[in-house]
Write a structure and sequence with these properties.
The complex is a heterodimer of chains A (292) and B (381).
Chain A (H helix, E strand, L loop, with lengths): L1 H31 L6 H18 L5 H24 L8 H24 L13 E4 L2 E4 H23 L1 H11 L1 H6 L4 H23 L10 H15 L4 H21 L5 H15 L13
Antiparallel strand pairs in A: 1-2
Helix pairs in contact in A: 1-5, 1-8, 1-9, 1-10, 2-3, 2-4, 2-8, 2-9, 3-8, 5-6, 6-8, 9-10, 9-11, 10-11
Chain B lengths: L10 H14 L19 H20 L3 H27 L6 H17 L8 H20 L4 H21 L18 E2 L2 E2 L5 H23 L2 H11 L1 H6 L4 H27 L9 H14 L6 H15 L4 H18 L3 H18 L16 H4 L2
Antiparallel strand pairs in B: 1-2
Chain lengths: 292, 381
């Protein structure tokens, strides 16, 4: 029973980190109609950048690492949006072109990592060593730090979306791009900012999860697929749905990994996704996925 | 124009025009919308296909005993067949299926398991592989084709990514776990087992399957079904009012594409003698993407030609092992940004340019009525 509670706690922690990763993905689609298949590579890049700063070359502490990596990821995201995504918006087959471009970008970025850092797995050290006993359960400081950090970012994100002008513009664009433009919202700037934020969240997720999973140049694909499954299960474009789906699937991952081994995690995720889609074809909180 | 044009461009509007003319009862069109187009006519599609096949059939005479080149050609034909089958979905049906390699792998596994675990004659693997591909494709299509296009891409990618772990944990049913199945017995003709030292029988076997893929794809495109897709692409509401169900025609074409891919997978398993979850790696996937892209999406038989180019270029770049995928990734981006219709699209442009030069006048730029053009507001939707 106690073991079960510990697994549950670890599942919830993973869940909130998955939320960070998946919400960036869903935001990107909800606001900019971009399905970003290079998302997994951004994840990898976040983790490797942190590795360079924390372990490989500079030996900085984690606080500084976050302070440097997150803005860099933001700028990188804005650049990708401006150079690759924006010209495609004129095309009638925008969805499909974006899919291909981001796939190409993913392969490019992954192999760039491979060429620079080699195929050997790398690992980030834990943020904090040791563990603490709370009411009979042993919880490592690492998990607590992960949870708190992810929670802070999530709360900041919600506040940003609800209170700031940029956040409100993003929601307006998500609802109706034409209407948003009529009231004077700079559409392309909002798209760029959204892409930047999404990339940043993904990078943050990469840093948070790197100590738990090993980093490999192609490791990002797993997280892309995880983000995909979470996002579809929750309903594409719905932040609330993503939140619930992240927790459900995070806990499921912890339980399956504990009972059957990590190899079974993805098959089970897929099964759950299938069951959810059977009952609700648009995902838990999805609005319109069915076509007429 | 008394006949409904079948050239490239926006055929749906022409279809609507054709229907309008029909209603006016002036000159009845020679062909009704939905009628079978002249599949057996000699046009660029069929001409290039026949040319390609003839060249391939005669090529062994020129190459002779060069096993290495023959092997590259066999591999090109395998992937060329898959690329054409995939293009049926991507370029014609508008089904953004990212799980094509999954059908290929499952066809390969089905055939390999049949001959190695069940001990049946490898030849049985071909129909079984094709059937596996078709069944899996249709099963995957049943739920996902009801959803909007992008959801199909997401679901099929999830399917594709989940397949490798499944095949790894599926050791109990004979998938061989991480190492896969090896060796797989080759085909035998009249009691003689084919060996990798003699490429010629393999070559003509591959050519036969490749031709099958080309012929099936050609007739799928130039048939009532192909026309349905063009109509659906150009004006969905009008096509539906003619009684075309996107769900049903998509499901059918997904089944056809899955069958061809599974068939090629089965052949691949016995040709290479090994099948493992590694085939589901990123490398194979991106190769296939760039074959279709380079040849031209929705430009039959471009993807098949793309396959030959990519296999030989990749072989040429063997020395740059680590950089190869990096180059291909960059190439995908460049093609999409600069020449989204690939080589066949470039041929189209060259042809228009030549015609314009010869006729000496400039036709107005072709633009569909509902194209927002440079209106930035509409770009968002």
């Amino acid at each position: 029973m106690r073991e079960f509670a510990e697994v549950l706690i670890s599942g919830l922690t993973i869940g909130i980190v998955y939320f960070l990763v998946a919400v960036g993905f869903t935001l990107c689609y909800g606001v900019g109609r971009v399905l970003n298949y290079s998302y997994g590579s951004f994840f990898t890049w976040g983790a490797y950048l942190a590795w360079v700063l924390a372990v490989g070359y500079a030996g900085l502490n984690y606080f500084l690492v976050f302070l440097i990596v997150l803005p860099v990821m933001f700028l990188f995201g804005v650049m990708v949006d401006q150079v690759l995504i924006r010209p495609l918006r004129r095309r009638p087959e925008f969805d499909f072109s974006v899919l291909l471009v981001t796939l190409g970008l993913a392969v490019f970025l992954d192999n760039l990592v491979l060429v620079i850092f080699g195929a050997r797995t790398k690992s980030l050290p834990e943020f904090l060593e040791g563990s603490v006993k709370i009411g009979g359960f042993t919880v490592s400081w690492q998990l607590i730090a992960m949870f708190l950090f992810a929670l802070v970012v999530a709360v900041l994100l919600f506040a940003f979306m609800a209170k700031t002008r940029t956040g409100m513009s993003m929601r307006a664009v998500a609802q109706d791009p034409v209407g948003a433009r009529i009231v004077g919202i700079p559409l392309f700037r909002v798209y760029a900012v959204t892409f930047g934020i999404s990339t940043m969240l993904c990078g943050a997720g990469g840093i948070l999860l790197a100590p738990r999973f090993f980093m490999t140049p192609l490791g990002g694909w797993t997280f892309l697929v995880k983000a995909l499954i979470i996002v579809i299960a929750g309903g594409l474009g719905s932040i609330r749905g993503t939140l619930y789906a992240s927790f459900i699937l995070g806990v499921l991952e912890a339980i399956v990994g504990w009972q059957l081994g990590l190899l079974w995690v993805m098959p089970f995720w897929f099964l759950v996704l299938f069951l959810i889609l059977l009952v609700r074809p648009a995902g838990l909180f999805g609005a319109v996925a069915r076509k007429g | 124009m008394s006949e409904i044009p079948r050239g490239s461009g926006t055929r749906g509007r022409d279809l609507v025009d054709g229907f309008a003319r029909l209603a006016e009862r002036r000159t009845p069109p020679a062909r009704l919308p939905g009628d079978r187009p002249p599949a057996l006519a000699l046009n660029r599609q069929s001409g290039m296909t026949i040319g390609l096949v003839v060249v391939l059939a005669l090529l062994p005479l020129a190459i002779g005993d060069n096993n290495y080149t023959m092997r590259l050609l066999v591999v090109s034909m395998i992937w060329g067949g898959v690329a054409v089958a995939w293009d049926l979905l991507l370029g014609y049906a508008g089904v953004f299926n990212l799980g094509q390699v999954g059908f290929f792998a499952l066809g390969a596994y089905a055939s390999a398991m049949l001959s190695e675990n069940a001990g049946l004659n490898p030849w049985w693997g071909l129909p079984v592989g094709a059937m596996t591909g078709a069944v899996v494709a249709v099963l995957l299509g049943l739920p996902s084709l009801r959803l909007a296009g992008i959801y199909v891409a997401l679901l099929t990618l999830a399917f594709y990514e989940v397949l490798a772990p499944l095949l790894t944990v599926g050791q109990a049913i004979g998938t061989g776990g991480k190492r896969g199945i090896s060796p797989i017995s080759p085909y035998s003709i009249a009691g003689h087992e084919l060996t990798s030292a003699q490429q010629v029988p393999w070559y003509y076997l591959a050519l036969g399957l490749f031709v099958l893929c080309l012929v099936v794809s050609y007739f799928a495109i130039n048939s009532r079904f192909g026309t349905s897709f063009i109509a659906l692409h150009d004006s969905e509401a009008f096509a539906q009012s003619l009684g075309i169900s996107r769900y049903r025609v998509s499901l059918l074409i997904v089944g056809v594409s899955g069958a061809l891919t599974g068939l090629m997978g089965a052949f691949y398993a016995h040709y290479t003698g090994v099948v493992s979850p590694r085939i589901l790696g990123l490398e194979v996937f991106i190769y296939l993407v760039i074959m279709v892209l380079l040849g031209g999406i929705g430009k039959f038989p471009g993807p098949a030609i793309g396959a030959f180019i990519i296999i030989f270029v990749s072989d040429f770049l063997r020395a740059f092992e680590r950089w190869r995928l990096l180059i291909f990734g960059a190439l995908v981006i460049i093609i999409v940004m600069v020449a989204p219709r690939g080589l066949m699209g470039a041929l189209d442009s060259a042809q228009t340019w030549w015609r314009r030069r010869r006729s000496g006048h400039t036709p107005p730029p072709h633009r569909p009525k509902d194209d927002p053009g440079s209106d930035e507001v509409m770009e968002a939707s």
